[in-house]
Amino acid sequence: MKAPTRPVRARAALAGALLLPALSFSTAAPVAGAPAAPAPDAFSRDFLPRTMRINLFHTGGKGVEILAVEGIRDDGPWAGSRTQLVDELGLGAYLVEVLDPPTQRLLYSRGYSSLFGEWETTAEAKSVHRTLRESVRFPWPRRPVQVVVKRRDKQNLFHELFTQLVDPSAREVNLASPPQQGSVWTVFENGPTETKVDLLVLGDGYSSKDLPKFHDDVKRLVGVLFTYEPFKSRQADFNVRALDVPSPQSGVLRPQSGVYLRTPLSVQYDVFGSERYVLTYDDQALREAAAQAPYDAIAILVNDSVYGGGGIYNDQATCAAGTGFADYVFVHEFGHAFAGLGDEYYTSDVAYETGRGDFPEPWEPNVTALKDPDALKWRDLVAAGTPLPTPWSKEAFEKQSLAYQARRKKLLAGGAAPSEVDALFREQREAEKRFFSAEKYLGKVGAFEGASYEAHGLYRPSVDCIMFTRTTGGFCPVCRRAIERVIDTQTR
Ligand SMILES: [Zn+2]
């Protein structure tokens, strides 16, 4: 029996057989005398090759946290692996699990991070409640499943936050295909979606007139991504598609600069009050647009010349395509969103509350609390004779970095043009290149203090990396390996 390629409402087929005969094929018995069908693989036994998306409202603040279902939708064809169903990467602040209720067998799991998880670490979360949208996506279950979302505690161990029985034949599940919007085009394609990483690039703030620019930006920045290892040598493992969704006008919302615009994906600057932090809060708009194409990862190019971007693991990556540093921002933010890499920088202002002192081991693959140097998670990449922690000219770097930040703040406060800020970044980049070239352990893997917004208590693997500075020397060996692991799980 050929597996249906679209979810069908089994109960409707039974209850409305006379009215809806077309739906009955999913439950039809094999024709007598027909050759026996091959044994279904594990994926086909439990899932249809469609994507189920559960829209969630994540509400919290003042010590409260609630996840609630807003709606359940068909999110297009399933583009993910059909063999790597259980997540073994261990990344993300949250973990979604799909279980078989009678046996509690784990059918599918995936780690992810969310806007809520970030907002929760801002000062605002102490004094107000807030609701943020997010969604979980998994292959379409053939039978009712139990969906569990877990979150990490202060020791980074997962605990159940949400559980709900989801019956794919329930009336609440909308079987309609995502409504068509925009048009999808192929940047390059190397093979079937289930054994390739499918990257979908969307644009926001590009008017119809700007679409040729969007195409140029996509080709340019995707081209840049694949000049960096390990993307360069793994390019054949990727399909890249892009979606044209024109905005009514050029640019996106920048409230701190008094630029008020509404765009299809609602991407904006000033997320959590940080002027260079660019994301969309509107997960529903993002997912409805992205559902036009099969995807494992999303990148959003923003048609703006003001420096900015953002990246959240298994959620979204953004990049202001019009700045002088778009190459760096695109690759850096994609590192967050694709491989759960943490920021290795620590001297810049961020919206999060920092300086808490005693850290559990971070889940990010490129940041460690270095409680036990012998058990360091990247110990096998540390060359013999490299001290842990690894010495570097930390104070001198901090002094230089803070001086550049003070100049940048002054420029921004004085209403400087984006090109002036870019020029300062170029000067800083050259100064940092000179600085690192004198470092004894440049190019070596160790544990260098200062990472993930913390000057003390957290360590990064290399003295420099694209997750640390804009010198664009590429990903350090630890980040490269983390990216390769994600590619491996999506291509088997
Ligand atoms: Zn790194």
Task: Write structural notes for this entry.
With 492 residues, this protein is of the alpha+beta class. The protein is built from 9 helices and 18 strands. The protein has helices at residues 10-15, 42-46, 115-119, 211-225, 283-290, 326-339, 394-413, 418-437, 477-490; strands spanning 47-61, 64-77, 94-100, 105-112, 130-141, 145-152, 158-166, 173-174, 183-188, 197-204, 238-244, 267-268, 279-280, 297-302, 309-312, 316-320, 448-451, 454-460. The protein has a 6-stranded mixed beta sheet, covered by helices on one side. The chain has a 4-stranded mixed beta sheet with strand order 5-1-2-8. The longest helix has 20 residues, at 394-413. The chain is globular and about 60 Å long. Bound molecules: zinc ion.
How would you summarize the topology of this molecule?
Layout: H1 10-15, H2 42-46, E1 47-61, E2 64-77, E3 94-100, E4 105-112, H3 115-119, E5 130-141, E6 145-152, E7 158-166, E8 173-174, E9 183-188, E10 197-204, H4 211-225, E11 238-244, E12 267-268, E13 279-280, H5 283-290, E14 297-302, E15 309-312, E16 316-320, H6 326-339, H7 394-413, H8 418-437, E17 448-451, E18 454-460, H9 477-490
Helix pairs in contact: 7-8
Zinc ion binds at residues 344, 366, 461-462, 465, 467, 475-476, 478-479.
